[in-house]
Amino acid sequence: MTNTEFQSRLLNWYDQNKRSMPWRDCGDPYKIWLSEIMLQQTRVDQATPYFERFVDHYPSVNALAEADQQDVLKVWEGLGYYSRARNLHAAAQLVVDDFDGRVPDSWDDITKLKGVGPYTASAVLSIAFQKKYAVVDGNVIRVLSRYHGIDEDVRSTKTKNGIQEHADELISEERPGDFNQALMELGATICTPSNPDCGSCPLQDGCVAYKTARTEELPYKSKKKKRPHHQIGVGIVRNQKDQVLIALRPDDAMLGGLWEFPGGKQESGETFPDTVKRELHEELDITVSIIKPFMKLDHAYSHFKITLHAYLCELEEGKPEPRTSQEIRWIAIDELTEYPFPKANRRLTEKLMNLNKGQQELEI
DNA sequence: AAAACGGGGAG
DNA sequence: CTCCCAGTTTT
């Protein structure tokens, strides 16, 4: 199949079958940029409601640039990879300061923005500005590795570079943005990881994997390491004013800019109450007594898993003084909703708020 | 080149 | 349970 045939079959299929998305065909570089950041390692269905809410809060680059980071993170809460939100916020301020409030339309300028790597630069430049840059994401890797019968490990840089060259070679001159979106749309809806719908594929004729019945084994990926599992003890410390103690995670840490109940990893030979007391003493220079177990929950991150053991605590001695220059705050239970929390901690705040509403159990 | 970085859904 | 997702940054 010639490149021209590849393009026309793919684009015709796309014109007939593309899904509706709130940022699609809007022509607004800000919304297209925002959507591409949200879609990094995130499915369309998961990102869409966040996109709508984010645009309601911040309809323009200027609105985003003027916002407080805490408010931006609150809108982003639950979507994960929070450095995306922090970087996007900082990048919006750079766009206002250095680019007159307009999303850059050149490779050299747009890649100056935090959080904009080769994929996002290509996506925004092609979709918003009709420039001929080919995207390579997980979908394109899958479609082209099958189409060309590439059986090298697609996790390796060399293989990805080869796929980038194929994409550069194939991309449409006239409709580069639609071509990119079409290839990704095909990967998301037809050329899926398992059980691809080859009968509906416009590229079936030229597909090596289809012709050799290897769609199930391509793309080849080396195995990922299994994730360690940690036991975490955390303290929900209450004072006489019925407030609880929360701590802000530093910007350069995992979950940076979000709040949490203080705690840490269990050490060998420790009971969980021991862990909570030790961590709160080390991190905040306070002595607490354990009142009772509050909640136990499991949570999985991208590279490790935790079981979180939360205990209701009472401040015994000392005034909390964070040692690692992180901010701490005493807040009422019904204020918990105003702060951005990571998912595992949000499960704790939800139970706290429910119990508080019912006036039960929470009394010490 | 490899690891860090969230959360949700599918199989 | 594992794998994957419209990847980027840091080490």
Write the layout of secondary structure elements.
Blueprint: H1 3-17, H2 29-38, H3 44-57, H4 61-66, H5 69-76, H6 83-98, H7 107-110, H8 118-129, H9 138-147, H10 157-170, H11 176-189, H12 208-211, E1 229-238, E2 243-248, E3 259-260, E4 263-265, H13 272-284, E5 287-300, E6 305-317, E7 328-332, H14 343-358
Helix pairs in contact: 1-11, 2-3, 2-8, 8-11, 9-10, 9-11
The chain binds a DNA duplex (11 and 11 nucleotides) through residues 35-47, 78-84, 87, 114-120, 123, 135, 137-140, 156-157, 180-181, 184-185, 187-188, 193-195, 221, 224-226, 254-255, 299-303, 342-343.
Q: What's the gyration radius in Å?
A: 25 Å
User: Helix count, per DSSP?
Assistant: 14
Name the CATH architecture of the largest domain.
Answer: Orthogonal Bundle
Strand content: 5-15%
Helix content: 40-55%
Describe the structure.
The protein is an alpha+beta fold and 364 residues long. The chain has two domains: 3-211, Endonuclease III, domain 1, CATH 1.10.340.30; 229-358, Nucleoside Triphosphate Pyrophosphohydrolase, CATH 3.90.79. It has 14 helices and seven strands. The protein has helices spanning 3-17, 29-38, 44-57, 61-66, 69-76, 83-98, 107-110, 118-129, 138-147, 157-170, 176-189, 208-211, 272-284, 343-358; strands spanning 229-238, 243-248, 259-260, 263-265, 287-300, 305-317, 328-332. Strands 4-1-6-5 form a four-stranded mixed β-sheet, sandwiched between helices. α1 crosses α11 (176-189), α8 packs across α11 and α9 (138-147) crosses α10. The longest helix has 16 residues, at 83-98. It is elongated.
